[in-house]
Amino acid sequence: MNNILVITSIVLKELVRRKDAYVLLIITVLLTLLSGSVNFFGDLRTVRYMKEICLLLVWISSVVIAVTMTARQLHAERESRTLFSLLSKPVSRNELILGKFFGCWLACGVALLAFYGFFVLTAVSRGDGWRLAEHFQAFWLHWVMLGIIVAMVLCGSLVFTAPSSNATISIVIIVGILMLGRHLGKLALHMNGPTQAVALVVYYAMPHLEFYDLRDLIVHDWPLVKWGIIGFVTLYGAAYTAVFLGLACFLFRRKPLNA
Amino acid sequence: MNTSPPIEIRNLSVIYPSAGRGLPPKTAVAGLNLEIRPGEIFGLLGPNGAGKTTTMNVLLGFTAATLGDATIFGRAAREPQARQNLGYLPELTYYYKFLTAEELLRYYARIFKIPKAQRELRVDAVLKLVDLEHARKRLIKTYSKGMQQRIGLAQALINDPGLLVLDEPTSGLDPVGRMQVREIINRLKDEGKTVLFSSHELGEVETVCDRVAILHEGRLRVMGAVEELIREHHCSLEQLFLRVIGYQPKLKTA
Q: Which residues of chain B does A6 touch, with a Cβ-Cβ cutoff of 8 Å?
């Protein structure tokens, strides 16, 4: 546990000291503030559209941050050869993977807090209520989803040599799941034979990231989701995260490293 | 008290799978038997591709042995805890550029679970040993090659290890740098540390090492005390090395 915490702290320190991570954060926060503060002629529908755009930007930025930050972790350690110095210490490969995961996931959490924090402050300044519970639910599930994504991209680091390939393929998969994956079950019903079987296997095997999208709850002022459902979806996300991390640990343990 | 030898290698073979269709598997190390005694400086020599780095990779847990085993102070080399009493200086020394020297050493000290009170003392001690106290708060990315090599040595010593594995420790250093590294190695020997040393600088090996092993094409060809080998073969270490690997000097044309 000690080694995992130590590696996590170094991942966080690197992200704080890397300037490029701030750029996306600042751009998104500015856009969040701008979009969330628009109120054309007091038209509530326009305010809702702006909130929707704003949250969409938060989602895009958070996924880009999670994917790009995670995709470079193991590759950078390998290329800079710091991996060999680290693994020559009493650190297991599993601890390295878990340390990287928690570091990236915590960093995503900090970025998300900033995004949602600014969004809530802007909404409150426009007369919306605090709606802390609703915002917390949206933030929490968003963060759980980013945990699945970070674990998936870490696993991808051990399959794809280049971080750019890993990042590109991960983003394609994530967008595919969010936009098309939810409809795959219905599409499968209209298919026949092996195609239907493959579609159903993919539908049930893939992590349903759309479960974590509570933007409509905030934009359209829907009531709170039951906490039991939030708990179940959190466990669902934790299970997928564990599967991806388990696979990453398995692949990394078998990988020969040549110093 | 642990009486196991610092390094024991028994019948070690490392065979890499075929690199492509029609190509045979590559045997990097074949049937290596080696024991390094406590307190000695042991040189691992050989031309490029001889199996030195592969042997070190197995000792450090980077690569699995195909056959045989390797232990460090009695523990299987693949176990992370085997490296608790080990310090490693890689050939190419690159460290986290966003960290300062003292932050890097503190990071590794935490990995070794050195208590906080002792941690700062260890960091101060190794920085003083490698003469980097003046640059401790500078980012490592601002360091020269020589300074990076010295911070490499510092991180290898942070846990006050009983065994040091040094891969080409003087590579890329100027004569002053090489002398400083040799002095540090001799000081470590006086403290009773065991050092496994891989180097192409045979003159240096002859000066520093107690025993050497020469590998060629994955096999151990010669092993023994440096002085005994020189006396037995009536030649320098370099000449013995060239003879063992079968190097034939090209004839001069008229």
A: 107, 110-111
Model confidence pLDDT, tens digit, residues A65-102: 899 999 999 998 988 889 999 999 999 999 999 999 99
For residue B169, the one-letter residue type is: P
Chain A environment of B82 (Cβ under 8 Å): 90
Say if B76 is an interface residue toward chain A (CB within 8 Å): no
Length of chain B equals 254
Q: Which residues contact B181 (CB under 8 A, 6 or more apart)?
A: B149, B153, B169, B170, B173
Cα dist. B144→B98, B126, B132 in Å? Answer: 15, 18, 12
- CA distances for A163 relative to A82, A101, A169, B185, angstroms: 17, 16, 10, 39
pLDDT of A40 reads 54
Inter-chain CB pairs, A–B, below 8 Å: 84
Distances in whole angstroms, Cα of residue A201 to Cα of each of A176, A181, A204: 16, 12, 5
Burial of B215 (0-12, 13-18, 19+ CB in 10 A): buried
* Cβ within 8 Å, pair A13-B98: yes
CA distance B245 to chain A (A): 24
Q: Are A157 and A75 in contact (CB under 8 A)?
A: yes
| ipTM attached to this prediction | 0.87
Q: Model confidence over B162-187: pLDDT tens digits?
A: 999 998 888 777 888 788 888 888 88
Q: Which residues contact A103 (CB under 8 A, 6 or more apart)?
A: A7, A8, A9, A10, A11, A12, A15, A73
Q: Are B32 and B194 in contact (CB under 8 A)?
A: no
Q: What's chain A's average pLDDT?
A: 87
Nearest of A22, A60, A247 to residue A153 by alpha carbon = A247
Instruction: Give pLDDT tens digits for A212-253.
Output: 999 888 888 888 899 999 999 999 999 999 999 999 999 999
Cα A126 to the chain's mean position, in Å? 29
CA distance B158 to B153: 9
- The 8 Å CB, 24+ separation contacts for A170-173 are A170/A67, A170/A71, A171/A63, A171/A64, A171/A67
Instruction: Check B112 against A90: CB less than 8 A apart.
Output: yes
